[in-house]
């Protein structure tokens, strides 16, 4: 339990550090209120249209691939940590696991999910 | 003395988890909901640390807070209309859902209070990852390989769904 | 009982989290919000599994293995669910679950 006291301390220091900067800047920054301050480009052209555009589906495809192989890593990690105890049988099992996932990667590659069109 | 700190940590984490979970299900703006969901997942990872499950805590942060929330934000980006303020309306069923859910919580609480749990009193071994690996690769080898099939099927299925839509659904 | 942590604390926390997730799943209109609520419910189950692993069978580690499998299934479920929602949105231009009624008769 006491190992995590350091982590908790780090968390507290990080929060104080971040919040302290924001608070100091809030306390000492100069204020001027007019409607031009709130525009996107204060000295530029007025903006037209909404800023919330539709994004490409590629974003979702990339995130999906990231999630799937992120989950693969959580299975690889315990195997890698105790690699020597598991021996050859563990290696074979893990290669079957990776082979099945590489099939999915091959399909994604074939379908062009890795390209940014 | 250690017990007091554990209890304090538990109370703080429980407050963090339940508060952010309540915000997730009640906020009107869906993007804010997803951001509070990340806070909730980190609180749950802290709870796992409290329960001596450090590998599961790392997995929780890595997969949920790191990857699943990114994917949810991208999903929100892809399907939302401009007005984010009202992107997450509640339907008429919330009046029905509130007493139902309250009743469920009371029932589970009463059952928990009544149940006699045999606490083993032993400590969790310090090296959790080294203990997890043989169980995962020997006793649970079939679910382990099935997990790979599940991930592959989810990947191909999701790509197929998004792909098919891109082929014939662009005009509207 | 004193101040020592007790499995029932974690079970009550998990039950409360599950109830919140169920409330979200029942009361939201947006399909992505319902997916998020399902994630909350799965996380509540994970808390229960890991707590029982610690307090009841600390040597066996079955609860932690199950939690890892639940996380895997949850990641796959979110991926597929979002793909289905994006596909429906492209065809129907809505993510409102009350409009997803064309399989009713």
TrEMBL record, chain A:
<dbReference type="GO" id="GO:0048038">
    <property type="term" value="F:quinone binding"/>
</dbReference>
<keyword id="KW-1003">Cell membrane</keyword>
<keyword id="KW-0812">Transmembrane</keyword>
<feature type="transmembrane region" description="Helical">
    <location>
        <begin position="86"/>
        <end position="109"/>
    </location>
</feature>
<dbReference type="InterPro" id="IPR000440">
    <property type="entry name" value="NADH_UbQ/plastoQ_OxRdtase_su3"/>
</dbReference>
<keyword id="KW-1133">Transmembrane helix</keyword>
<keyword id="KW-0520">NAD</keyword>
<comment type="similarity">
    <text>Belongs to the complex I subunit 3 family.</text>
</comment>
<keyword id="KW-0874">Quinone</keyword>
<dbReference type="GO" id="GO:0005886">
    <property type="term" value="C:plasma membrane"/>
</dbReference>
<dbReference type="InterPro" id="IPR038430">
    <property type="entry name" value="NDAH_ubi_oxred_su3_sf"/>
</dbReference>
<dbReference type="Pfam" id="PF00507">
    <property type="entry name" value="Oxidored_q4"/>
</dbReference>
<feature type="transmembrane region" description="Helical">
    <location>
        <begin position="59"/>
        <end position="80"/>
    </location>
</feature>
<dbReference type="InterPro" id="IPR023043">
    <property type="entry name" value="NAD(P)H_OxRDtase_bac/plastid"/>
</dbReference>
<keyword id="KW-0472">Membrane</keyword>
TrEMBL record, chain B:
<dbReference type="GO" id="GO:0048038">
    <property type="term" value="F:quinone binding"/>
</dbReference>
<dbReference type="GO" id="GO:0005886">
    <property type="term" value="C:plasma membrane"/>
</dbReference>
<protein>
    <recommendedName>
        <fullName>NADH-quinone oxidoreductase subunit J</fullName>
        <ecNumber>7.1.1.-</ecNumber>
    </recommendedName>
</protein>
<feature type="transmembrane region" description="Helical">
    <location>
        <begin position="57"/>
        <end position="79"/>
    </location>
</feature>
<feature type="transmembrane region" description="Helical">
    <location>
        <begin position="6"/>
        <end position="27"/>
    </location>
</feature>
<keyword id="KW-0520">NAD</keyword>
<keyword id="KW-0472">Membrane</keyword>
<dbReference type="InterPro" id="IPR042106">
    <property type="entry name" value="Nuo/plastoQ_OxRdtase_6_NuoJ"/>
</dbReference>
<dbReference type="Pfam" id="PF00499">
    <property type="entry name" value="Oxidored_q3"/>
</dbReference>
<dbReference type="GO" id="GO:0008137">
    <property type="term" value="F:NADH dehydrogenase (ubiquinone) activity"/>
</dbReference>
<dbReference type="InterPro" id="IPR001457">
    <property type="entry name" value="NADH_UbQ/plastoQ_OxRdtase_su6"/>
</dbReference>
<comment type="similarity">
    <text>Belongs to the complex I subunit 6 family.</text>
</comment>
<keyword id="KW-1133">Transmembrane helix</keyword>
<keyword id="KW-1003">Cell membrane</keyword>
<keyword id="KW-0812">Transmembrane</keyword>
TrEMBL record, chain C:
<dbReference type="Pfam" id="PF00420">
    <property type="entry name" value="Oxidored_q2"/>
</dbReference>
<dbReference type="GO" id="GO:0042773">
    <property type="term" value="P:ATP synthesis coupled electron transport"/>
</dbReference>
<comment type="subunit">
    <text>NDH-1 is composed of 14 different subunits. Subunits NuoA, H, J, K, L, M, N constitute the membrane sector of the complex.</text>
</comment>
<keyword id="KW-0874">Quinone</keyword>
<dbReference type="GO" id="GO:0048038">
    <property type="term" value="F:quinone binding"/>
</dbReference>
<keyword id="KW-0813">Transport</keyword>
<feature type="transmembrane region" description="Helical">
    <location>
        <begin position="64"/>
        <end position="89"/>
    </location>
</feature>
<dbReference type="InterPro" id="IPR039428">
    <property type="entry name" value="NUOK/Mnh_C1-like"/>
</dbReference>
<dbReference type="GO" id="GO:0030964">
    <property type="term" value="C:NADH dehydrogenase complex"/>
</dbReference>
<feature type="transmembrane region" description="Helical">
    <location>
        <begin position="32"/>
        <end position="52"/>
    </location>
</feature>
<keyword id="KW-1003">Cell membrane</keyword>
<keyword id="KW-1278">Translocase</keyword>
<keyword id="KW-0520">NAD</keyword>
<keyword id="KW-1133">Transmembrane helix</keyword>
<keyword id="KW-0472">Membrane</keyword>
């Amino acid at each position: 339990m006491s190992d995590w006291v350091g982590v908790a301390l780090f968390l507290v220091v990080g929060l104080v550090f971040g919040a302290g900067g924001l608070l100091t800047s809030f306390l000492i920054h100069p204020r001027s209120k007019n409607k031009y301050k709130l525009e996107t480009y204060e000295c530029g052209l007025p903006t037209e249209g909404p800023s919330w555009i539709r994004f490409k589906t590629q974003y979702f495809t990339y995130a999906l691939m990231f999630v799937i192989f992120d989950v693969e890593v959580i299975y690889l990690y315990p195997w890698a940590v105790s690699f020597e105890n598991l021996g050859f049988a563990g290696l074979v099992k893990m290669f079957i696991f990776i082979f099945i996932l590489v099939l999915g990667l091959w399909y994604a590659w074939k379908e062009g999910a890795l390209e940014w069109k | 003395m250690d017990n007091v700190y554990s209890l304090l940590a538990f109370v703080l984490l429980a407050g963090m988890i339940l508060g952010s979970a309540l915000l997730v299900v009640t906020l009107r703006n869906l993007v804010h909901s997803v951001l509070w969901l990340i806070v909730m997942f980190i609180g749950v990872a802290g709870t796992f640390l409290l329960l001596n499950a450090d590998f599961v805590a790392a997995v929780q942060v890595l997969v949920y807070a790191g990857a699943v929330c990114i994917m949810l934000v991208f999903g929100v980006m892809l399907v939302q209309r401009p007005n984010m303020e009202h992107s997450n309306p509640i339907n008429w069923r919330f009046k029905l859902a509130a007493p139902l859910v309250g009743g469920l919580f009371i029932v589970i609480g009463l059952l928990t209070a009544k149940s006699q749990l045999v606490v083993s009193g032993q400590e969790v071994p310090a090296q959790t990852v080294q203990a997890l690996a043989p169980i995962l690769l020997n006793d649970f080898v079939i679910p382990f390989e099935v997990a790979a099939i599940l991930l592959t099927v989810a990947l191909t299925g999701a790509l197929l769904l998004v792909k098919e839509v891109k082929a014939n659904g662009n005009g509207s | 009982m004193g101040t020592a942590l007790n499995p029932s604390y974690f079970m009550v926390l998990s039950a409360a989290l599950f109830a919140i997730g169920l409330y979200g799943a029942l009361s939201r209109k947006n399909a992505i919000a319902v997916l998020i609520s399902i994630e909350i419910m799965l996380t509540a189950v994970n808390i229960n599994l890991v707590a029982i692993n610690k307090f009841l069978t600390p040597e066996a580690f079955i609860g932690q293995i199950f939690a890892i499998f639940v996380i895997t299934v949850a990641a796959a479920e979110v991926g597929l669910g979002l793909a289905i929602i994006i596909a429906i949105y492209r065809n129907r231009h809505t993510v409102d679950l009350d409009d997803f009624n064309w399989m009713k008769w």
